[in-house]
UniProtKB/TrEMBL annotation:
Pfam families: GMC_oxred_C, GMC_oxred_N. It comes from the Bacteria. It comes from Ureibacillus manganicus DSM 26584. Belongs to the GMC oxidoreductase family. This is GMC family oxidoreductase. Keywords: FAD, Flavoprotein, Oxidoreductase. Residues 221-329 form the Glucose-methanol-choline oxidoreductase N-terminal domain. The keyword Oxidoreductase applies. GO terms for molecular function: flavin adenine dinucleotide binding; oxidoreductase activity, acting on CH-OH group of donors. Residues 428-552 form the Glucose-methanol-choline oxidoreductase C-terminal domain.
């Protein structure tokens, strides 16, 4: 028998960056907000210890417990989907702060081209550039409309950067803090890229170059360049994340609270509205009903989509007919790259998650695709993140994979190896989607999410073209040996690649091809909002956090307006 709790104005499912932003903005506006977080409470003080690569990077201390809930995966519909029993291609966060606790801190605005990708591509290259199997669509919002929300997120997070990239959208304000240190490694990339006619710039970073107090009064410390960002929490409070910014802001209002160990298993719906959520206390096993005037799904991409599916809200995408929107346009990312082996040593053991230099000369539509067999591109970046000793064992080709010779080469090249990598765009394809698995369930009796995904010809062509470009830059940097990434074959969910999943709950102006409207309000339930990278109609040439953060601020504005007037916001 479920226990029914007191009704609140707004309940968020998940308390990371997105749930924290919704919580802060709505509670500041006077709404009573409750955040439901299935993980535990944690904060900066929990990371006051020696850096433990094994605990966090190998044994995944901060991530979702796959023994209780995972996903199943297959490349095609003809294959049997099987559960992922260990963290592989992507790392799902759990606990206060979500994936924003363990992120590297790369913070980007998607390009103006991204938001109007179909209309701009059709206008320039014709409607059949990729073919009918690809499901390109505009987002229902332009870059200019989203720009104020980008700015708000960046000033909340204190993003460090410089506005000298000729290819990205116009900014209404400068970055709130200066760029990070331009190390000798980055200077070498800058010189090589400039020699080749490109336009290098310092990566926008949530590892702050200096101490910063944001407009809400939260202070973020300066980065120490210790090299333990990705997969780790920051013991200095120098990596901007929800638990040191928006969550304290929300709590200070007195209108916000959080329930931990609260796993939401269903969104409750009556007629054309939702009434709240049902969740299970993961410690006691007790079941609760949380009534709410407004429900906001702010969990990770995969979890938001799954929750709508198990709650039977929206029409599941059918690849046979093309009908339905829920689970549609699932995209991942491609990673063109080149590795260089040098004679001289570098301080590769030092760095920060977003200490890097980038070129956008091959991102979006900044170069002509008329005679190319793909669209879009990638940001090409060299990062100095701090290479850790357990997982980083680079050796040149033809080196034995084990034994004395491998050990000798691994030690020698530990400080003599650099990599240029691209975050490559992924276009939606009719055969790449999310659904519920018919065979497997989680520890709470809920069907697992099933992902059907494989690389496409678009992916393979883009990857090959840009891997060659990264190799050219690495050669110009003076590497003794340059190794470009192998051509793409089938996508494999192992090993780790990025946590940059997108799609499944796509936004847009047309309910026939989108789950939510441009204010992230569900088409089938006016008091249900869904926000995150799942709203992306495709994946771009950057990581998704900054764009998801901007959407969260736009969503919060929509929720506040809806609380006053009701009805559809479009």
């Amino acid at each position: 028998m479920a226990t029914t709790l007191d009704k609140v104005d707004v309940v968020t499912v998940g308390v990371g960056w997105l749930g924290g932003i919704i919580g802060a903005e709505c509670s500041k506006a006077g709404l009573k907000v409750r955040g439901l977080e299935r993980g535990a409470k944690r904060g900066t003080e929990d990371f006051f210890m020696a850096h433990d690569e094994f605990r966090y990077a190998i044994r995944y201390e901060l991530f979702q417990n796959l023994s209780k809930e995972t996903i199943t995966f297959r490349n095609t519909r003809k294959m049997n989907a099987l559960p992922m029993r260990m963290m592989g291609s992507f790392l799902l966060g759990e606990g206060l702060g979500g994936a924003g606790t363990h992120w590297n801190g790369h913070n980007w605005r998607f390009l103006p081209y991204d938001f109007q990708i179909k209309s701009m591509t059709d206008e320039k290259y014709g409607a059949n550039k990729l073919g009918s199997d690809y499901q390109l669509q505009d987002w229902g919002v332009t870059y200019d409309e989203l720009e104020p929300y980008f700015t708000k997120f960046e000033y909340t997070a204190g993003i460090s950067g410089e506005d000298n990239n000729p290819f990205w959208g116009k900014r209404s304000k400068p970055f709130p803090t200066p760029p990070m240190k331009k190390t000798p490694i980055l200077q070498r990339f800058e010189k090589a890229a400039t020699n080749l006619g490109y336009h290098p710039f310092m990566m926008p970073s949530a590892n702050l170059s200096e101490s910063y107090t944001n407009p809400d009064g939260s202070t973020i410390a300066a980065c120490q360049y210790c090299g333990f960002c990705e997969r780790f929490g920051c013991e200095y409070g120098a990596k901007s994340s929800a638990e040191i910014t928006v969550i304290p802001t929300a709590l200070e209002t007195g209108n916000y609270d959080i329930r931990f160990h609260s796993n939401v298993v269903e969104v409750l719906k009556q007629g054309d509205k939702v009434t709240g959520v049902r969740f299970i206390d993961t410690v006691t096993g007790e079941e609760f009903i949380q009534p709410a005037e407004i429900v906001v799904l702010t969990s990770y991409v995969l979890n938001n989509a799954k929750l709508l599916m198990v709650s039977n809200i929206g029409e599941q995408y059918n690849p046979d007919t093309g009908r339905g929107t829920l689970g549609r346009n699932y995209c991942y990312q491609i990673l063109p790259s080149a590795t260089g082996f040098f004679d001289e040593q570098f301080n590769t053991f030092m760095g920060a998650g977003a200490l890097g230099m980038t070129i956008d000369d091959y991102n979006g539509d900044s170069f002509d695709h008329s005679n190319l067999d793909f669209i879009h591109g990638a940001s090409l970046t060299i990062t100095q993140t701090g290479q850790r000793p357990i997982q980083f064992n680079p050796v040149p080709p033809d080196t034995p994979a084990w034994g004395a010779e491998f050990k000798k080469a691994s030690i020698h090249y530990y400080t003599r190896t650099l990599n240029i990598g691209g975050q490559g765009a992924s276009m939606p394809h009719k055969e790449n989607f999310m659904s519920l698995d018919p065979n497997y369930k989680d520890a709470y009796g809920v069907p697992l999410l099933q992902i059907t995904y494989n690389f496409t010809e678009q992916d393979r062509n883009l990857h090959k073209y840009l891997s060659e470009k990264t190799a050219e830059i690495m050669k110009e940097m003076g590497a003794k040996t340059v190794v470009a990434a192998n051509p793409l074959t089938d996508y494999d969910i192992v090993p780790y690649q990025t946590t940059h999943n997108t799609g499944g709950t796509v936004m847009g102006n047309d309910p026939a091809i989108s789950v939510v409207n441009p204010w992230l309000q569900h088409w089938d339930a006016e008091n249900l909002f869904v926000v995150g990278a799942g709203n992306f109609a495709h994946n771009g040439g950057y990581n998704p956090t900054g764009t998801a953060g901007a959407l969260a601020y736009r969503c919060a504005e929509g929720i506040i307006n809806y609380s006053k007037t009701g009805g559809s916001l479009v």
